[in-house]
Amino acid sequence: MRIKEYILKRTIDSAITLICGYLLSFLIFVANTPFLKSSSTLVQLYLNMKSLFYGRLNNMIIELIGDRLYGTLLLLSLALPSSILIGLLLGTFIASKYNTNLDKVLTALLILLSSLPSWWLGFSLTYVFSYRIRLFPIHGYYDYVRWFRGVSFEEIPVFIYDILSHITIPVLAFTLNFTGFYYIIARSYIIEILKRDFINLAKAKGTSTLRVLFIHALRNGMPSILFTIAITPSMICTALTFLEITCSKPGLGWITYRFMVMHRENFEVLQALFCIFMTFNIILIFLLELVAFILDPRISNDEGKAYFTPTIREVLKCLIMLPRTIKFFSRYSWKNKVSFKGKIGICMLLAFIIMATIGSFLESNISNPCQPPSLIHPLGTDEWGRDVFIRLLKGTSTSLAEYLGAVSIALILGCYLGTLSGYYHGTFLSYFIDRLSDLSISMPLVIFVSVFPLNLSIPFLHPIILRSVILTGLGTWSITAKLVKSRILVIKQQGYVEAAKALGADDAHIASLHIFPEALRTGLSGIVFTAATAIGLQSGLDFIGYQRFTFSTIEEIKSAPIISWGNMIAYSTMYGRSISHMWWAIIPPALCMSLLVISTVWICDMIADIFSPYYYKSK
Q1: 433: Cβ–Cβ under 8 A, 6 or more apart, which residues?
Q2: Residue 219 to residue 227: CA distance in whole angstroms
Q3: Which of 13, 22, 23, 296 has a 20 to 30 A CA-CA distance from 281?
Q4: Using 50, 70 and 90 to split pLDDT, how confident is the model at 555?
């Protein structure tokens, strides 16, 4: 496919995704717009789009958001390239040191930083560099809009210094948080490329190690790396929103927070923010995929034709056959030696489950407020005299339920839809799933999870927790689906798949027993993205002052009906308190978040090794 044809096709696909996104914003926000409810659906759509793009409301939105857009673009333009560049360089270099002590230590450190929520890193860095060291200011942001309206020559140095001093902490927090993601992507691809024949040939010719890594290996892996980076826009928007709120920096994230707290009835502004974030994400995905295609035109997924025409019966059979895959491989999995990291991950997850079980039966007694840890109170007391350790146990049940439920939905839905999209590539079903996944990746999850009108209830689960589980899972499934599909498009061309078809195996049998087990390893490799997004989103919403409540209301943290790790930290930092004042109530919940993500990553790595066909060969 020529580049002009590819640009045209991707432009049409992006336009369709954008239109679907605008329709989704209408469905989300029209339920919260009283004056539209009395009209028909088409009239409601017309009036909603007219108020959004034309008239007095549009001028107000442009004036309100336009002044804040510069701050978000400045933060993004500095933080995103830095994290991608550092992650790619580190990942490429460490791939040559695979399985050494340096590889293990650096990988563990970067996974630890990536597992921490971005808002926690921003909060901690603000405390260290602004409160303790006083190296960077906390408030008093310079009016950067004056730069575009005219700044005198004498003010330029002061202007630049003030902007950089205020933007350094959120840029540093974003870079530390996202460098690990891009490091993992680059490292995994480069390790695979270094095993290929052309790399061995380059080494035999005496090519230097750095040239082999950065000219031969990184250059060949860059298209696949860029395609994988294209699954992170929703994570980027979530991190930017929380960092601007936590670090008190003016931008679109701060405006989102303002209209979700102080102007809850003004849903038109939130809808405009939803559309702006979504448009930016779609453009970013388009540019990344375009650059990847220019680097290697062979990787286009749009030239292949479908080998099969799916029917409803075949689609349902694939759904039924996937559990059979797990049952088939479970007969062999535990006969092999489970990795040490997998055992540690299982033990950590079991420890969290035990904590949640114990916490559901405990009640906190009121004691002296703000007491440090002691024998009576292992983690001290909070500002109202409640035992922090008991509250940590009770918060574990809420955070663990939300986290495991959302990650499970994302993995199950992503694996199934990714398998269908990859196996039936070239059909309308695959195209529909692709547009659905693009829409899911491009949505601003903070607004989607907070405002989406959903009210469900089941026994033994609080409606708030159920709502958070479903919406977070629906917002993160596309990460797994994209990874699974990219692997299936390669596996589908293998000889053993053609042999299975020649023997008369049906689509469901081939997809679930021959293709999906090998693609599962690739899908599980993206668990760090899904897990970090889920825990960061849920805890971040609690930290900044909300809990997901029934329908679209957003309750303040003082009236939050349940305890979670995020609102524990929020309680402890109210009224200007810092880490040094009540570290025993702030650090343990954040440490639990990080350990929960790491345990999930290690368990999924173990499962991926067990399901990989190469695992049996290596034993």
Answers
A1: 417, 418, 420, 421, 481
A2: 14
A3: 296
A4: very low
